Amino acid sequence: MIDKVLASITRYSMIDKGDTVAVALSGGADSMALFHLLCYNKERLGINLLAAHINHGLRKESCEEEKFVTEYCQKNGVECMVLKAELGEKEKPQGLSTESWARQVRYEFFDSIAEAKGAKIATAHTLSDSCETVLFNITRGTSIKGAMGIPAVRGNIIRPLIDCTRTEIEEYCRVNDIPYVTDSTNFEDVYSRNKIRLKVIPTLRQINSAAERAIGEFSMENQEIYTFLTQLGDNLYRNSIALNGFDVSAIKKENKVVVKFFLRDILENYGCLSKQNIETIYSGILKGEFLKQLSHQVMCQVKDNRLSFYAPLCPSKSPKEEKVSVKIGIITSFLSKKYKISSYNAQEMKEIKENDKNYLNYCIDCDKIGDKLFLRTRQENDRFSFTKRNVTKTIKKLLIEDKVSKEQRNKIAILSDENDNVLWLEGYGVNRPFIACEQSKGMLVIEKE
Questions:
Q1: How far is CA 420 from CA 369, 375, 377, 390, in A?
Q2: How far is Cα 165 from Cα 182, in angstroms, rounded to an integer?
Q3: Strands 332-334 and 290-293
Q4: What's the CA gap between 184 and 58, in Å, rounded?
Q5: Does pLDDT of 321 surpass 50?
Q6: What is the pLDDT of residues 407-422, one digit of tens each?
Q7: Rounded CA separation 274/266 (Å)
Q8: Which candidate, 199, 300, 321, 413, has a CA 20 to 30 Å from the CA of 331?
C-alpha cells in the first residue's frame, strides 16, 4: 500500500519537499494508517509532520479517543493540536444536521491550522469513501459533478489514501501492528452512508469483487469530462460577456451541454442553482425573450439579444469588503460574488492551450507581480491597458465611456498586488503590462466561481 499512496501523492501533486502537513487524526483505522505512513516516510517526502484532532464531544468515548491520539503522537514525537468542540453542550444551528455541523466545525479548525502553520491538511478519505459518496449522490439525484466522488486535492486539503480501499487500509494496520479505535456509530444503519457502507457495497462486491475500483475509475472519467466542459463553459463566459450581461448570439452558437455548464457557474455564483432554473433560462435563450425571478434576490432577463442577471442593491460596503486578501487556490467572497485564483506552470498551460488558443490573454505572469494579492474596488488613479490595443486609460474614464452607471462602477472587482498595481479588471481581463507570455515560468488565472 505504501507504493500506491506515494504514487498518488506524486500523481496528484499533493506534497512538495519542505511542506508542513497536518494529518486530520481521528484515531480510526484510516487516519491512523495515514499518520503512520507519513510519519515513517516524512524524511523521504521531505515534510514537517503535525496532527490535528477534534473532540466533538458528541459521544462518551470522545475523551478516551482524544487521549489515545495525543499519546500516540507524543510517542512518535509529533505535535498534536486538539480542538475541544463540546458540540453536545451547544445548540445546533438551525437547518444543519449534526453530521453537517460537525463537518463545518472540523474544516474551520483545519483552516485555522493551515493559516497558522502554513500547512496542508491531509485527511484520510479513501477510495471506499469516494465510492460511497458517488452512490449516495446518484441515489439522491445529481449531475455529473456529484458523480466525481471525493477529489484527491481541494485547495489546501490533500487525500493521500484516495486510491486505497478500506480493506487495504485495515490490512496495512494489521501488518504494521497499528492500534486504532472504532467508532460504534459506523455500524448503525440509521445513517444513509452507513447503509451504503454496510449493505450496498458488500452486495456490489458479490457482483464484482473490484466494484470499488470500477466505481473509482468511473469517477475519474467524470472528473475529466467535468474539467473539459468547465473549460468550454469558461471560454463561453469570456467570449460572450458584455456590459451588464452576456451576448445571446454568442451563447446560441454553443452546444447545449456547454451552455448549461456556463449557466451552472453563473447561477451557483448567485446562489440560485437548480436544474429547473438552468432549463428555464436555456429555453428563454432559445426563444430570445425571457423574464423570471429565480430567487428572492435574483431576476433573470433575456431582451435585446442580452442575457442579464439582476441582484438587489448591495448595502454600503465596509472597508473590509472594499479590499480583501486573496490566497491562491482558495475561493474568496467579494461584493456578494466568489472568485478563485489558480496557479499553473508552463506545461499545465500548454494543455489548456489545446482548448483555447488565446489562453495567454487570460494569464497573469507571476514574475511581474508582488507576493500578496487583493480583490478591491477601483481607486481614483487606477489605469488599465488593453491587451490588443495600444491604449491606456484610467478605469474611471473607461467605465464612463462604456456607459457603466456610477453604482455599477463601485461593484466591479479589481485584482491588485501589494503595490496596488491593477492586474485584472472584471469584465475586461488582464492588464497588458502583467500579461503572461509563453516563456513565463508561472501563471495565475482568476475566475468567478
A1: 10, 10, 11, 22
A2: 17
A3: unpaired
A4: 12
A5: no
A6: 788 889 999 988 888 9
A7: 11
A8: 300
